[in-house]
Amino acid sequence: MARPRTPVGTFGRIEFSTLNGQVRARTRFRDVDGQLRRIEASGGSRIAAEHELKRRIAKRVDFSPGTGELTPSSSFGQLVEVWLADLDLEGRLAPSTRELYERDMRQIVLPAFEHLLLREISVRKVDQFLKTLGSTRSYAMAKHARTVLSLALGLAVRYDAMRENPVRETARLRRPPSPTLSLTVDEVEAIRRAVRGWRRGSGLSGPRPDGQLEQIIEVMLGTSARIGEVLAVRKCDVDVTVTPATVRLCGTIVSPKGKPTHRQSKAKTASSTRTVSVPTFAGAVLRQRLVLLANEEPEHLIFFSRNHTPLTTNNVRPQLRTILEQAGIEGVTPHAFRRTVATTLDRAAGADLAAEMLGHTSSEITRKHYIQPEEQVDPRTADILEALAPRTDPEDAYDSPPDE
User: Fold this and answer.
1) Which of 213, 346, 379, 381 is the one with CA 20 to 30 A from 387?
2) Is the CB of residue 45 less than 8 Å from the CB of residue 258?
């Protein structure tokens, strides 16, 4: 019996080598004419070289139905490679998102489905996988797995390897109830005191804090911005010539795997790019930073390392968590500053303004995830309900004995 041929588009083990600082990735690939050919690509890292290699392979493959690229008999592992190559061809994802998708797929989803053929992946199997993941690991992990699994199986449907996407028919994931915690005014003041005294005592080794951490906190409270957005603010994004001062939030700091930390001009979403007016305490901080940067180019970051390179969010977040612990505030993450802004704005002007400030497309998102519910019902209800009061004297109505 003849051994079945390897499907078109299949490639073998990827080999890596380094020459003149460039990483070269090579593999043997079965081309669209059925011939095995060696193909290679180079990049600044193993990941970059591998992505470029897969991009070149995908470019050579005819994705139209009937080529054998994806069929019901294709393995899920083969689908994953085609899906990742398709993401690279589209080029619509930010590098950090592309990296996250691949990590979630390879670490969470692929181990459960890699030995199954596409025709063997049913709604029941996907549903049980997601429910088990949510109950034994976390809701967030199950949600991430659902996203990448749906995207990959959607590609299989588009190329006629599956009739329908089984993820669409699975039960809805239920987020476990958790309170939306914002900070009180007293807690904010406790954090300010804690950050002013952090690592400033005697007998401590290493350089003393340069004051940027407390300034970052003030800008987060004054803008509602995420840590990455605050760290990505440049001189040219700040305008202190108007009253109140404004900040344009139009980028974020990213640290892609295998690449240096840098400012990404693409915001998280289209609505995340916004110009906000800031309160006086945030405006004062921004003016101080601009004085330090008087001789720097307009593109220079407002907050930066001692070498004038971008600060990483992975360094700032742990510092903020340490400050929160020292302030005696437990169970709260640095994201609480954003929730505090949302809750404060909602109390004064409603959820729509809070959503606009946070850069959300819907106030429902803000209300559900960022605004702390108010336990005290509006006291105006008492005045309104007076319309239901009895027509007689209340004391006569309740103190007189009923008629026999």
Assistant:
1) 346
2) yes
